[in-house]
Amino acid sequence: MGKKLLIQHADVPNIHTLQVYKEKGGYASVEKALKSMAPNDVVEEVKKSGLRGRGGAGFPTGMKWSFLARPEGVDRHLVCNADESEPGTFKDRYLMEKIPHALIEGMITSSYALGAKSSYIYIRGEYFYVARILETAIEEAYAAGYLGKNILGTDYSLDLYVQVGAGAYICGEETALLESLEGKRGNPRIKPPFPAVAGLWGRPTVVNNVETIAAVCPIVMMGGDEYAKIGIGRSTGTKLISASGHINKPGTYEIELGLPVEEFIYSEEYCGGIINGRKLKAVVAGGSSVPILPAELILKNDKGEPRLMSYESLSEGGFATGTMLGSGGFIVYDETTSIVKNLYTFARFYHHESCGQCSPCREGTGWMEKILHRIVEGHGKPSDIDLLWDIQRKIEGNTICPLGDAAAWPVASAIRHFRAEFEEYINHPERIKDVKHYYSVHQLAGA
Amino acid sequence: MNGEIKFNEETLATVNKIIGRYPADKSKSALIPILHIAQAEFGGWLSPESMDYVASILKIKPVEVYEVASFYSMFNLKPVGKCMLEICRTSSCWVRGAEDVVKHIEKRLNIKEGETTKDGMFTLKTVECLGSCGSAPMMQVGASYHENLTLDKVDALIEEYRVSGKQRSYTDLDYKNTL
Ligand SMILES: Cc1cc2nc3c(=O)[nH]c(=O)nc-3n(C[C@H](O)[C@H](O)[C@H](O)COP(=O)(O)O)c2cc1C
Ligand code: SF4
Ligand code: FES
Questions:
Q1: Chain B interface test: which of A181, A345, A352 (most B C-beta within 10 Å)
Q2: Is this prediction's pTM over 0.80?
Q3: pLDDT digits (tens, 9 = 90+) for A237-258
């Protein structure tokens, strides 16, 4: 069994309350950091830990923190990215809903390290009930002296607020998030300046994912060096993976980085294998934006070595034969799945969510959805596959924010690995017509 | 809705508390949370009058409110039914039967996606991933997530909502179905 640092107590009754959370060792990192460490010591431990951002890009957290500008007399902010809208991803929701104090503790310890006096948790609007859970927990933390003025009798004071969004995937992009937090449309900003210099209200700001912030607590408690021993190579620590699709046990799992993909999919401890004993067809390993891989390439890399759940192993082979760990949204597809129709749901998603600022993204996502729609409906033309390829290539790298790339990669990878299926749709629409390509809810109910 | 576009004392207190979360000259940051409240209190959608009222509270131009309200998918700029049935249609839900759920509701309520029943009770909407992929298929109604749906479960929920007859909002605190 791999190590668990974040959600090992998720099933303890009433772990969402401060009392039970404390009984399980909660808030110890606040005690330790505020009473026995200088803010910069905390930053150093995070650097040593090798922790990488859990929101998708995997950027080293300690390095990000050390970039934060610290001009005299200007407030700094820590903003938690709880927008979680990448299809296939629901791990932050699990953590916040089950153990809200784990995030709050991480916010306090991290805000202390960064010298923030007021910090914000920006949560997607649909998670309103989770925002309520967080707010209740925050009230408890204020009452117990973990928030507010002179925390635990020290000089450090912090206010923590929750702000809800209102339905926009793009607000997960950190600069769009900051715009939204300022009460504006979620249009990503042109970088530079980076948020570390000019973020929320133009002030130096660090934006981190929920899971990243929660991981700071065990790092402070065990020390960065010990944390770095967990995991594999430059993929240190544990990672929350939200598993969905055609598996027997969908849900959120904490894995030690380096776990073989095959074990994750088939072992009883995790996904428990494919439903109805069917064959694995493909996996989207890190949320909808990462390249989809066929079974043979997700279980083993192109050299025939077992693929591991780590930043490096999943991306081995580049885009030709690899993918990315991304947000940890792990979607499993069995042999009955239509890759083409599935891709259409992604293309529709990206078109719906494009903010429209850049024409390659705005127009390109629209065209990709349209073309895929006609292919799925049986009206595709032989030239459509190359046309799709061409459009996605023109988006990639030509936009303000990475949503454009995120829309392009699923299309490129589906064509790269499943071209024959697109051809089948286009050349033999009659064969596709009456096939449902998805499980009916009755089938799933076991009828 | 009784027609008057004005928050009562209690709501105003909440609104002021929200404004207090931000630095004094940054109260525009409170816009999105306040729009959620306005939508819940003024009939489930944001009329131009509601948006103008919110602009007056935050002392910003009405157009600053319109451009925000029209950007975010949770704000309705047209009247909707008392209960919006929002079905996720993205990949993980799709492979586990979301299309069946949509078709079933269309038949049962005799409306198409995007439409509202004649009695004004239900609006059917398809939406993108709601972070419930591991409990697919799912449907959001107001603040409640209904997960691992079966068609029987959908029928029972629709009946429950119909009998209760209440307007459901994202800001409702009724989250018993998830916890
Ligand atoms: C379109 C788009 C959507 C994103 N959505 C999220 C999200 O929902 N949650 C998140 O933590 N990061 C998201 N990110 C990444 C953020 O921009 C940012 O890198 C991240 O919050 C940094 O935190 P981390 O370093 O702790 O991962 C998104 C990025 C893009 C381009
Ligand atoms: S890439 Fe797309 S989402 Fe990002 S800024 Fe440009 S148009 Fe908006
Ligand atoms: S795909 Fe439906 S909730 Fe994520």
A1: A345
A2: yes
A3: 999 999 999 999 999 999 999 9
